[in-house]
Amino acid sequence: MAGVEPFSPAPPGPPPPAAPPAGHVAPAGHVAPLGTPPPLAVRRRTPRASGWALRITLTLLALGCVAQPLLIGRYLDGDYAAAGRHGANGIFLLLLTTAAGVAAVAWWVGGGHPLPLVGLGLLWFVLSFQIGMGYSRNLAIHIPLGVGIVTSAIVAAGWSWTGRVFRRVR
User: Fold this and answer.
1) pLDDT tens digits, 117-142
2) Which of 39, 48, 119, 136 is deepest in the core (most CB within 10 A)?
3) Quick check: 150 pLDDT over 80?
4) Pick from 162, 88, 165, 152: which is nearest to 125 by CA?
5) How many Å apart are CA 145 and CA 65, to the nearest integer?
6) Angle at 45 between CA 40 and CA 46, to 5 degrees
7) What is d(CA 51, CA 160) in angstroms, rounded to the nearest whole number?
8) What is the rounded (10 degree) CA torsion for 169, 94, 70, 129?
9) How far apart are CA 102 and CA 90, in angstroms?
């Protein structure tokens, strides 16, 4: 047939859009194609250094708390100097709780949950009361409260090693 052109595909449309440059923030309402990494402005950091600081201080706190019944057991076994070490370790635990509280503040600011900070603040006051009960020799309160403190310190240190320390909550 004269004058009839052979069949040809439809003319090509506009070229596909190029990938946005690294660090590009898309305009509001724009949906990125699947597999595109989020823009730098949206990426979230997990609290790494502060998480390790919290983990280390909670572990040291738990070890110091576990040492308390061992020290007083040495005293009951006849090593009378161990009572002084028991009291000094109690003061050291108060300082360790303060250090763990500072680490908990840094962890919270970095995106962690505030619960460890609240728990360590409460533990600080409980330890202060515990030291007073020990020096006043009020063993009816000192011993059961000590069991609770040791248990809570072990639970807190165990929690810090579960991996939840490195998850962002906000």
Assistant:
1) 999 999 999 999 999 999 999 999 99
2) 119
3) yes
4) 152
5) 12
6) 160
7) 8
8) -100
9) 19
